[in-house]
Amino acid sequence: MVYWSVSNAMRVIRNATYTGVKSYNKSRSNNFFEQKRVNNLDMSTYEYANGDFPEIVSQEIWDKAQKLRESRIKPSLVS
User: Fold this and answer.
1) End-to-end CA distance of the chain
2) What range does the domain containing 34 cover?
3) What is the mean pLDDT for each group of 10 consecutive residues in the chain (79 residues)?
4) For labelling alongside 63, which of 1, 10, 14, 43 has CA 20 to 30 A away?
5) Is the whole-model pTM more than 0.85?
6) Could you tell me which residue ranges the Recombinase domain spans (predicted)?
7) What is the tally of structural domains in the chain?
8) Which pairs from 20-28 meet CB under 8 Å and 24+ separation?
9) 48 located within any domain
């Protein structure tokens, strides 16, 4: 029997790979010499390309899940 935890379900909901696309621009290097990775936390700047693998979740269901997830996020007190 497979048990789903909240963290496993949230990983599927947040990861666009399950819709059959690859996402780019999630992180970048801070400069040429240090080569430290800096995460891009702004999901609106991600770039998506069709992958060569089948989708597990339809795009329509994934979009609905994103809207629901964003509506439940508590506003931060620090801007």
Assistant:
1) 44
2) 20-72
3) 85 87 89 88 87 90 90 75
4) 1
5) no
6) 4-72
7) 1
8) 20/50, 20/51, 20/53, 20/54, 20/55, 20/56, 21/48, 21/49, 21/50, 21/51, 22/48, 22/49, 22/50, 22/51, 23/47, 23/48, 24/48, 24/49
9) yes
